[in-house]
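User: Please fill in residues for this 302-position structure.
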């Protein structure tokens, strides 16, 4: 009977080589499986086949006692379910003790967005330096096309079809999608490419759309820092991050078009239930309009 550690290593190799998950996602799976393996070792269970549903419930309870939030426990259980499904397929003996275990439900938090006036204020970059042109192009592209942070960092110059005004994006699970690029974002990218020097270092840097001042492909951390700095310079009273611009893109597009399927495709969501959270934002907007306009909703003036 193969050990838990043996199957854990094989499963992580499968996620990396076959599923081609990102390093960040792989690290999350690795931490969750290491936690479960630690539980197994302390309870003298060395093989995945020895675990029962009661063990998974006890492990989840242990995570809860440690102070993990419901969302974190839910992620750990999801990793466990995927792991046991993999082991069952490989061995031909389906056995998923995590299948019926649920984490405490977490309240659904609505994504934080900027309204259109705040976006305009934020995107009003002052200056025309090398760094300013690059940062303006990145921010415009986030809001224009609803990109994820990892998607923007991975962009190459050749991913832009200037004439068709389209962008080829590689998203989660190495899935590609084509999204439109707005005229202001294209103009900002053109301004940036006029001053962008050739990348110094590996071939990836030479092909990269956005590079650092050292000539390397820009890192996710650097993008986060630069966007936050622009938020402070533009007078925002909260930190602006890439996902806030992505959320704002989705919310404004849905508010104007009402086309949930189109927004799903543009965001690269594999499941429309993920996109449906933006309908809650739209309903909030409608509620505000109703409260301000409907005679029966207005408060009486004394």
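Assistant: Residues filled in for all 302 positions:
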């Amino acid at each position: 009977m193969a050990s838990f550690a043996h199957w854990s290593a094989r499963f992580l190799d499968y996620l990396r080589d076959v599923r081609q998950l990102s390093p960040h996602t792989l690290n999350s799976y690795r931490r969750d499986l290491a936690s479960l393996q630690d539980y197994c070792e302390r309870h003298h269970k060395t093989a995945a086949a020895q675990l029962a549903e009661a063990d998974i419930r006890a492990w989840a309870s242990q995570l809860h006692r440690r102070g993990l939030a419901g969302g974190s426990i839910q992620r750990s259980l999801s990793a466990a379910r995927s792991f046991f499904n993999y082991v069952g397929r490989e061995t031909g003996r389906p056995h998923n003790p995590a299948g019926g275990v649920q984490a405490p439900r977490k309240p659904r938090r609505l994504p934080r967005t900027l309204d259109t006036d705040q976006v305009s204020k934020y995107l009003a970059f002052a200056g025309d330096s090398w760094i300013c042109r690059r940062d303006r192009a990145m921010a415009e592209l986030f809001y224009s096309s609803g990109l994820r942070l990892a998607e923007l960092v991975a962009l190459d110059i050749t991913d832009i079809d200037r004439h068709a005004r389209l962008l080829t994006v590689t998203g989660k699970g190495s899935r590609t999608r084509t999204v439109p690029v707005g005229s202001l974002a294209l103009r900002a990218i053109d301004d940036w490419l006029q001053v962008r020097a050739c990348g110094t270092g590996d071939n990836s840097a030479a092909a990269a759309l956005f590079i650092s001042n050292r000539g390397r492909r820009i890192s996710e951390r650097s993008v986060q820092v630069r966007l936050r700095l622009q938020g402070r310079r533009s007078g925002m009273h909260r930190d602006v991050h890439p996902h806030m611009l992505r959320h704002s893109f989705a919310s404004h597009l849905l508010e104007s078009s009402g086309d949930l399927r189109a927004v799903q495709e543009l965001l690269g969501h594999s499941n429309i239930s993920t996109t449906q959270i933006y309908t809650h934002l739209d309903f909030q907007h409608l509620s505000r309009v109703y409260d301000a306009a409907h005679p029966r909703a207005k408060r009486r003036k004394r």
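For context: Strands lie at 160-161, 166-170, 176-180.
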